[in-house]
Amino acid sequence: MLNWIFVGLNIFVAVVMAATAMLPAKPHKNVILETTLPVAQLKHPAVSKLTQQYIQQLWGLALLFSIGGLPMMFIHFDSLALLYFVLLIFALFSAFYGTEIHFIHKMSRLKCQQGWSLPITTVKIVDTQLVLTKNRNLLSINWFCGSAGLLVIGLGSLYFMLGWATSWPLILALVLCWGLFLLLYWIVAALPVRTLTAQPEYDQSMMLIVKHGRDK
What we know:
Oligomer: single chain
Mean pLDDT: 80
Shape: flat
Number of strands: 2
Strand content: under 5%
Order of helices and strands: HEEHHHHHH
Distance between the termini: 60 Å
Number of helices: 7
Low-confidence stretches: 122-126
Helix content: 55-70%
Strand order of the largest sheet: 1-2
């Protein structure tokens, strides 16, 4: 029974990752695949072709990892099935994020090759102080209380339904995953927000270059 749960979770995660990773391929204002393009070029054939390739590759990965999880149905040891599931999930996340980064770079190269870099304007400047303040406004750690309560209820249910001998690998994995999220929250909260230089006008110019691009 646990094996079927792992297989279902793997397929669910693969589909959700594919659907989520597709969002950058949909234009937001004049940004597509994390690359700022002139509005007139958002429907350029080269851009459309690249985004279609990206979407097809995402669904191909979802299908590949869904099929890759099917062997878990034939593993008779829960500990081995859990280990296979965890390794598959890590590989799945790595593959999807690696694909997204790869196509973002391809879109940036296409922008440079076509000469679509936007001119830098000084009329609207980037407020670096606002960015700094926004980065520090994280959600309160109290938001983890709800997930902690659900975790305790889930762990208790697993223990009473399956017994300690069967449920301890899954209990350990769930506790470690929840602890990982808590650790990542602490790391993000502790990250120092630094300016590039001691002169704000230079920082604003650098951010504008990153946002709009500049021909070399």
